[in-house]
Each structure stands twice: as structure tokens, then as C-alpha cells.
Amino acid sequence: MKSLLAAVKKGKVLVSDGAWGTQLHQCGLTSGECPELWNVTRRADVFSVAKGYIDAGADMIETNSFGGSPLKLGRYGLGDRAAELNEAAAAISREAAGVDRFVLGSIGPTGAILMTGEVTEEELREGFRIQAEALQKGGADVVCIETMSALDEACIAVRAAREAAGGEIVCTFTFEKTATGEYRTMMGISPAEMVQAVKEAGADIIGTNCGNGFDGMVEVVREIKKVDRLTPVLVHANAGKPVLRNGVTVFPETPEMMASKVNDLIGAGADIIGGCCGTGPEHIRALAEAIRYR
Fold it and tell me: Are 125 and 134 in contact (CB under 8 A)?
């Protein structure tokens, strides 16, 4: 496995990929359909998404495994296929990335809440272990635990990934601006609280994804850097805040609009920059050009 930390420490801002769900829906994924099952039933389409980001200039791509925990897959009757579908996801992105680019094995939240008793710590730990192990087996260089909102689940995921895969770990949370102007997750966690907890659990790279466009991400990164100046920060931003147009939710920021804000995000302290909801290869191409020719 290659070292993403070593690449960041060379001082060059790296480019990540963009949204996966957005692209898969454009390929025909329907609401209520399991995206991870496409890793075996629609492999060519999944590969086209990964390759599209590589061709756009991304230094790394994620895997189509965000909802690949046994708990989430169990809602589709696929819980016993978690290892198979995660390994397939990593193999697809590995093929698209080649030997020079990084593959980040995506692990999202399970949707289960510990404090309500609907899941146990052991069930969470085992599920994350299965995912991390399969992603590494399929060719992922790094495990990316993302879109988290609860400290307990995120820390269990980080520790499980460390034990199972042993490689580098990214952990990102999703923050929203409150009525009082503070940034919090839906579980009330601040960026500072996130940093302390996931670093202690073993995360190597920290950050934020989804929930905000570049403007909000600049503020979140500044809050992170107030408490930790050294740990590399990854940002996957939405293409602006979603708006409703003619009954359809759209993300309004064009590739050029996002690229125009790259310097602000780098100035705040971001080391790896990519996209989340509403972004596609053209957004990543614009970000890559803005970063490389700044």
C-alpha cells in the first residue's frame, strides 16, 4: 500500500474525486436500489465513474462502498455479502486508479444509533472490520471513514479499521451551521470535539465532507486548524447548498465557481480537496487545474 500521508507531507495539495451517488444515478441507479450491488451486477458502470474522476485529474478515488456495512446491506437482504461487495468495490477503483493514484476505501455510517440500543458496540465493530478488511484485500490504499456525525460510531470504525487493515485512516464528519453560527453535526459534535476524539482513536487524516459548499468548508477547516495545526485535512465539498428548482433539488455551483474558491480553502489549511454531492468529473477537472496552476 502507498502512503497518502507521505504524499501530503511533500507539500503538494492533492485532488480527490467527486460525488459517487450523483454519477451512479445518472447511470440509471434508482431510488431504493442498492448501489453496492452494482459492483457485481453493473461493474462497467461503476468502473466508468471511477475512471471518469481519474481522467479528470484526481490523485485519488474512493470506492463504491459507502453503504457497504453488513447492517446497511442487511436492509436489502445482502448483509452476508458485505465482504464480497466491498472487495469488488475496491478492485474496481484499483483498476481505474492504476498503480500511481490512491484508492480510498469508503466506509459510511450504518444509520444505527448506539444509545438507543438498536445495535451493540460489538456489532458495529465487527461490521466495520469486515468492510475494512475486504476493502484492503480488494486493493484500497487507505480506509476513508466519512460523513460521520456521532463520535462513538466514528471511533469504533477507526479502531476496527486499524485492527483489520493496519493502514492509514481518513475520518471525516459532516457539519451544518446552527442558528447561532456554530458548526455542529446532527448529533451536536463540534469540529474541535471531532478532532480530539478521532485522533485519539487512531485517525491519520481528518476532515469534513458533505453538508457545505466551499464557503462553509473554509470556516470548518479554520475551526479544525485552531485545535490541530499538524494533522492533514481532507475536504469533500458539495457543489454549493442545495436549492429546489421546479420541484427538483439541484446543487448550484458550477465547476468554475468552485474552482474560484480553491485558494481560500487552501489558505484555511486544506491538504486534500475533492467534491461531494452535486459534483462530477468537470468539477474535479476544474479543481485540479486551479490547484496545479495556482
Answer: no
Cα separation, 239 vs 224, in Å, equals 21
- Which domains are assigned to the chain? 4-292 (3.20.20.330)
Helices (H) and strands (E) in the chain — how many of each?
A: 13, 12
Instruction: Report the mean per-residue pLDDT for the chain.
Output: 96
pTM, two decimals, is 0.96
pLDDT score of 245: 85
CA distance 249 to 227: 35
Quickly state the pLDDT bin for 42 (edges 50, 70, 90). Answer: very high
Enter the C-alpha cell of residue 264: 481560500
Distances (CA, A) of 163 to 133, 158, 167, 201, 217: 9, 9, 9, 11, 31
Higher pLDDT, 97 or 247: 97
Burial of 44: CB neighbours in 10 Å, binned 0-12, 13-18, 19+: exposed
Measured CA angle at 159 (ends 157, 160), to 5 deg: 65
